[in-house]
Write a structure and sequence with these properties.
UDP-N-acetyl-alpha-D-muramoyl-L-alanyl-D-glutamate binds at residues 31, 151-153, 176, 182, 184. It is a single chain. By secondary structure, the chain is of the alpha/beta class. It has helices at residues 3-6, 54-59, 84-95, 114-127, 156-165, 177-181, 209-217, 236-244, 294-309, 314-321, 350-362, 383-393, 409-423, 434-444, 472-481, and strands at residues 26-28, 38-41, 64-67, 78-80, 104-109, 132-135, 139-142, 145-148, 170-174, 190-195, 223-232, 251-256, 263-268, 275-280, 283-288, 332-335, 341-345, 367-374, 396-401, 429-430, 449-454. The radius of gyration is 24 Å and the shape is globular.
């Protein structure tokens, strides 16, 4: 692609040595990935400033550079822009030929429920005869090929590459607040956008819950001409978003328990795998929700309303739900020889953990046991509220480690001790090794116990633990098949 085509729609200051016909063979924002013929985009990142690596990029073969800082005297053309992140995303879209235009694009955002809603959508859409790609937290799935995810919302180059590679009719994207704030979805427009809910999360990144909401709501400004918004009204932030979009040209539909919702939940007939009664238009029908818990009632309703707007009847979609097999790392249940139930779940917010407890209570759990870990360099402000919640509900709370992310282990253990003393009245057990914490709960489990292991879901461990496993699920499977007690 020639330079002027790549810069189309991007405001830059063009240098004297600008060549509109300069052929660009690739784009990179990592100087180490540059090959001759590439353009380098210098981004002021969170851990390093890309402008420091311009010389390295040129040495590796970059033939042009885009950045924010005023820089002179380079041997290649340098284009200054006000926002190099936005420029990167727009150039990526230009480079790959605006691939979002060839797909029906569905964006899913919210604190909780993005992944489950995306998997539900993919299943229903594919069972209805359409092909579907997915970009999200667990995996990226393109043309039926599974690619392990690095982030919920990938960087702009990866997103546009995946969209260009996809031959599927529909693409579902989980859209994180980080992805929106960091301009990763710039240049992408959606046919459908879904808002699941909002809760206290990522407040180490966003200055307040209001700022977090405002970032999330920016997804709904990225709609195609006849775009449709699907909003959960049972959450106060969903109602605020509905009000915010009232004067927009797009169609806005809600699901919840209000009489004015497009899809209204009338009642829940059973609890664990809920059978629900739903009103849509003038008709009502019973629907079997394929996943446990009230939170999955809302996830299912959001998926059903979206596919209905795509032309798939609620009756047909509900029929397809019967063959849904679940989501990796989302409320995956495992039986214990003594009759206990172990659950691996990604839950890492108060709301998500409360949903887990509600399900256990509805199933008459005799005891709730929780193995809870926190990650280094993550939102520490929410930890005290989560520990307080867990200690109030659980018969046994075990505090353990999640990913350290460069924080010294001793410092994280001290943090667990402090949380235990201040917000759990010293009642929690502290077992830093995550696998040994799970083994401890496994060895002590009794009939009627519900044991939750939260925070990582399907994710692999980033450091080594005592047991020879790499995920929470593998740890449980190891303990189920171990013929002899595992040494401490």
């Amino acid at each position: 692609m020639i330079m002027d085509e790549l810069l189309n729609g991007i405001t830059v200051t063009k240098p004297e040595n600008h060549d509109p016909l300069l052929p660009i063979t690739g784009i990179q924002f990592n100087s180490r990935k540059i090959v001759p013929g590439d353009l380098f985009v210098a981004i002021d990142g969170f851990s390093a400033d890309g402008h420091r690596f311009i010389d390295q990029a040129i040495a590796n073969g970059a033939i042009a550079v885009v950045g924010q800082q005023p820089i002179a005297g380079l041997e290649v053309p340098y284009y200054q822009t006000s926002d190099s992140r936005k420029a990167l995303a727009r150039m990526a879209s230009n480079f790959y030929g605006h691939p979002c235009k060839k797909h029906i694009m569905i964006g899913v955002t919210g604190t909780n429920g993005k992944t489950t809603t995306a998997y539900l959508l993919k299943h229903i859409i594919e069972q209805s005869g359409r092909t579907c790609s997915m970009i999200g937290t667990v995996n990226n799935i393109i043309n039926n090929q599974v690619i392990k995810s690095k982030n919920t919302t990938p960087d702009p180059l990866e997103i546009q590459s995946l969209l260009a590679e996809s031959l599927d009719e529909v693409v579902i994207m989980e859209v994180s607040s980080h992805g929106i704030e960091q301009q990763r979805i710039e240049g992408i427009y959606f046919d459908y956008a879904i808002f699941t809910n909002l809760g206290n999360d990522h407040l180490d990144y966003h200055e307040s819950i209001e700022a977090y909401f405002n970032v999330k709501s920016r997804l709904f400004k990225r709609m195609k001409k006849h775009g449709t918004s699907i909003i959960a009204s049972h959450n106060e932030w969903g109602r605020k978003l509905q009000y915010k979009l009232a004067d927009s040209a797009q169609e806005v539909f809600t699901f919840g328990n209000r009489t004015d919702d497009e899809m209204q939940l009338i009642n829940v007939c059973t609890e664990y795998f809920p059978v629900i009664k739903v009103r849509h238009g003038k008709s009502t029908q019973k629907i079997q929700v394929p996943l446990p818990g009230m939170h999955n009632v809302w996830n299912t309703l959001g998926a059903l309303l979206t596919v209905e707007k795509m032309g798939i009847s609620i009756k047909e979609a509900a029929r397809h739900l019967s063959t849904f097999k679940g989501v990796p790392g989302r409320f995956e249940t495992f039986s214990h020889p003594e009759g206990a139930t172990f659950i691996v779940d990604y839950a890492h917010t108060e709301d998500a953990i409360e949903y887990c407890y509600q399900t256990a209570k509805r199933e008459n759990a005799e005891r709730i046991v929780h193995i809870l870990g926190f990650r280094g360099k993550r939102d520490s402000a929410k930890r005290k509220d989560i520990v307080s919640l867990c200690s109030d509900v659980c018969s046994q709370l075990i505090l353990t480690l999640d990913d350290l992310n460069g924080v010294p282990k001793d410092r994280m253990v001290d943090e667990l001790k402090k949380l235990n003393n201040e917000f759990a009245d010293g009642s929690a057990e502290i077992i830093p090794d995550r696998t040994k914490a799970i083994q401890h709960a496994w060895d002590k489990a009794k009939d009627g116990d519900w044991v939750f292991i939260t925070g990582k879901g399907q994710e692999t461990y980033k450091q080594s633990f005592k047991l020879p496993t790499s995920t929470d699920k593998q740890t449980i499977q190891f303990l189920k098949t171990a013929k002899h007690p595992v040494s401490s």
